[in-house]
Structures are given as C-alpha cells and as structure tokens.
Design brief:
Number of helices of chain A: 3
Radius of gyration of chain B: 34 Å
CATH superfamily of the largest domain in chain A: Cupredoxins -  blue copper proteins
CATH architecture of the largest domain in chain A: Sandwich
Number of helices of chain B: 7
Family (chain A): Belongs to the cytochrome c oxidase subunit 2 family.
CATH class of the largest domain in chain A: Mainly Beta
Largest interface: A-B, 23 and 27 residues
Number of domains of chain B: 3
InterPro entries (chain A): CcO_II (IPR045187), CcO_II-like_C (IPR002429), CcO_II_C (IPR034210), Copper_CuA (IPR001505), Cupredoxin (IPR008972), Cyt_c_oxidase_su2_TM_dom (IPR011759), Cyt_c_oxidase_su2_TM_sf (IPR036257)
Helix content of chain A: 25-40%
Order of helices and strands of chain B: HHEEHHHHHEE
GO biological process, one term (chain A): ATP synthesis coupled electron transport
Number of strands of chain B: 4
Oligomer: heterodimer
Order of helices and strands of chain A: HHEEEEEEEEEEH
Strand content of chain B: 5-15%
Helix content of chain B: 40-55%
Strand order of the largest sheet of chain A: 3-2-1-5-8
Structural class of chain B: mainly alpha
Shape of chain A: elongated
Subcellular location (chain A): Mitochondrion inner membrane
Distance between the termini of chain A: 30 Å
Largest sheet of chain A: 5 strands, mixed
Largest sheet of chain B: 2 strands, antiparallel
Cofactor (chain A): Cu cation
Structural class of chain A: alpha+beta
Distance between the termini of chain B: 60 Å
C-alpha cells in the first residue's frame, strides 16, 4: 500500500519483488550517471573555448561513442533478461487459481476447488465507509493463503486487461484466448490492492483488484463458504 | 533584440567591412548576404561555425578590383601590408573570426522574458477560474478526517511495514515512533 505523497516503489512481499526493486535502483543509477555525464559535457562544450582539432573525422571518437553506449546497454540488458526468465519460473504450484477479466470486473475461479467461482466488482465512491480507499475497494476480494506457492492463470473474456498487484510487483496481461501463467507468493499475511493496467473501455479505471493473504484455516473456510454460496 | 545584437556584433568590424562586404549581416552560422545587395563574387553557400571553423572554399570566389590588387600584394612580404589590408584579405577568405564566434549573445533573455509573460497570463487565468468559475466544494476522500481514517486502516492492516505508515507506528505503545 502506498502512503500519501509517496514516489518510490512500494514494499515488496515476494522474493522477485525485491529483485525487481534492486534492478530498478540499478537502472536509475545508470540513468543518473548518463544524465550527469551529458550535462557536464554540454556545459564544457558551451564555454566556446574549444576549437575542434580533427573535425573532418576521428576514429577514436567514433569508437568511444559506440563502445560506451553499447557497454551501458549490455550492463542494463543482461540483468533485465536474467530477471525476466527468473520471473517466469516454474509452472508448479501448490494451488492453482484462474483469473478472468471482464468488462469491467474480475472473476476468480478455483482450479483445485471445482465449485469456487466469484466475481469482484468495485465499490462505488458513494458507498464507501470513512477510511476506505477510493477506486480500490471491491465487494468480493480474492483470499489466498500466504507462504504458499500459488499458480495464477490469467485470461480474459472479452478484451485485453491486465491484472496488477504493485505490492507483489506483479503485472500480467489478460489476453482473450490465451492463458498467461504467473506464480504468486507472499511472505506475510496482508491486504494488497491493484488496478487494471490495460485500457479496456469505459470503466477501465474502475475495476480494481484486492487480494487478501490469510492463514490456511481462514482460506479454507472462505473457499467452503463461497462454494456453498 | 536579435537585430540589435547582430548590429552590435557587426559594428565592431564595420570599419573594415565597407570595402569587402558592404551588405553583410552576421546571422546564424556566419555572415549572410542580403538579397537586394547580393554580390555574385561571394560564395552563397559559405558556412563556418565553432565546430567547423575552416571552410572548404573561401568566401570570395573571384577577386576583382581592389581585392585583386591585394591578392597580388599577398604573394609578397606581409610586413608591407597595413593592418587594414591584412584584415580585408582575412575577411575575403573567412566570414567570421573565432572571437566573433565565441562572443556571448543575449537573445535568450528575450525568449525567457516572453516565456515568463505567457506563463504569468496562464497563472492569472487559472486563478480567475479557481475563484469565479469552479463549482462549490463537495466532500472528497482527501478530506482530513478521511485521510486520517485511511491511515489508521493501513496501520491496522500492517500495510507498508518497511517504508510505509506501519514502519513508523509503535504497536506496543499505540503511538507514532
């Protein structure tokens, strides 16, 4: 959850989240380095004291301004590729759940629980109680057990949506006709919010995601209740 | 402003320019011939700048009249040439001296001033709309009471326990750290 006036990445609750935050910090450091170097160079050139000696051509200069950008790109690209393949991970999970995007709500089905099926609609602003989060509260939130490797299979019923949980550094596109798989794992119990991240029509901004990580007993009770309902 | 700046740049050397280029203006990238007084002997695509100071061809293509005489004198001893003649020979080959290229220009002040005028008009318009046109205030989720209640909710759910509100709340004593 983000505090007010917060501009950093939020706390991660997964191992991959920490890796992503570290990579983000590393990329920003590279960008700051490039920006500082460019600003210093432009300040030096602006002094108009220097006349170019070899203005017709310079092989050394061409080599340098090819090598350094390639070096920087490789240094950013290799960790990025490593992280990308790490995130895909294995497809094994202790539990499997299916997330289906609709216009304009999410529905969750329990792959291991045949009767488990529920829809999650946003609570309108007029119906919020004091202290609740605008455009984030839902009527039925997804309840999952924490410290459990859960496999999520995400798809869509109509147009492309995107299932996002910033606290777990997750963003998976829900594409109609395709099942995207992602593993979800939370270190600790808690309540995490997200919003649809792919433009999908009129109420794209009004289809939030709310996931609650609880212990196994609470989770099983919840699944049993929902199945009966 | 730019005209004044150009005039000031040109006027430093106007004494030496009358013989060679009576209708030259120092523009972007170098001297530019005015259309009504174009001299056919002068290279029209002449270009020089600080990053490319030595031109491919001289500025004057054909040396006629006084310049032809000066060119013949250039072959001999340069100490026999006066300062003005040396300057004319230099100006006939190059367009702008290095000192002229390095000279600071103050056109940016006009641009900055005009930009500030437009920004201030925009701010005035915004103030007018805010005071006289905007609808009356209704409740929002950013009211103080609502924000306090939402922060309390975040603390109760232990959200942000590393860098968020929960990390700054002392749960044992029920107060901020």
């Amino acid at each position: 959850m983000y505090p007010y006036s917060f501009i950093q990445l939020t706390d991660s609750n997964t191992f991959f989240g920490h890796e992503i935050v570290l990579f983000h910090d590393f990329s920003l450091a590279s960008l700051v380095f490039i920006l500082t170097a460019v600003l210093l160079m432009s300040k030096a050139l602006k002094k108009k004291k220097y006349v170019v000696l070899a203005y017709k051509g310079s092989n050394m200069l061409e080599f340098l301004w090819t090598f350094f950008p390639v070096f920087i790109l490789i240094s950013i690209g290799l960790p990025s590729l490593y992280l990308m393949y790490l995130l895909e991970g294995s497809f094994k999970g202790d539990l499997t759940f299916k997330v289906v995007g609709h216009q304009w709500y999410w529905s969750y089905e329990g792959g291991d629980f045949n009767d488990f099926d529920m829809s999650s609609y946003m609570v309108p602003s007029e119906d919020l109680q004091e202290g609740q989060f605008r455009l984030l509260e839902v009527d039925n939130s997804m309840v999952l057990p924490y410290s459990t490797n859960i496999r999520l299979m995400i798809t869509s019923y109509d147009v492309i949506h995107s299932w996002t949980l910033p606290s777990l550094k997750m963003k998976v596109d829900a594409v109609p006709g395709r099942l995207n798989t992602m593993n979800i794992f939370s270190f600790q119990p808690g309540s995490f919010y997200g919003q649809c991240s792919e433009i999908c029509g009129l109420l794209h901004s009004f289809m939030p995601i709310h996931v609650e990580f609880v212990n196994w007993e609470t989770f099983l009770n919840h699944v049993t209740e929902e199945s009966f309902n | 402003m730019l005209r004044v700046a150009l005039h000031r740049v040109v006027s430093h050397r106007s004494v030496h320019l009358t013989k060679v280029r009576p209708s030259m203006v120092v523009g972007f990238g170098g001297p530019v011939q005015l259309a009504e007084n174009r001299d056919p002997n002068v290279n029209p695509i002449f270009h020089e700048s600080l990053t490319n100071p030595i031109p491919d061809k001289p500025r004057t293509l054909k040396y006629t009249g006084d310049l032809a005489t000066l060119k013949e004198m250039e072959v001999g001893d340069w100490k026999k040439l006066s300062v003005e003649e040396q300057m004319d020979l230099y100006n006939s080959y190059f367009g702008t001296s290095i000192a002229d290229m390095c000279r600071d220009q103050d056109g940016w002040k006009s641009v900055l001033g005009a930009g500030m005028i437009f920004i201030s008009f925009g701010l005035l318009l915004h103030l007018f709309i805010h005071l006289y046109i905007n609808p009356p205030y209704v409740w929002t989720t950013l009211d103080e009471d609502w924000v306090k209640a939402s922060i309390k909710r975040q603390i109760q759910s232990h959200a942000g326990d590393i860098t968020g509100y929960s990390s700054k709340w002392d749960y044992a004593n029920n107060r901020w750290k």
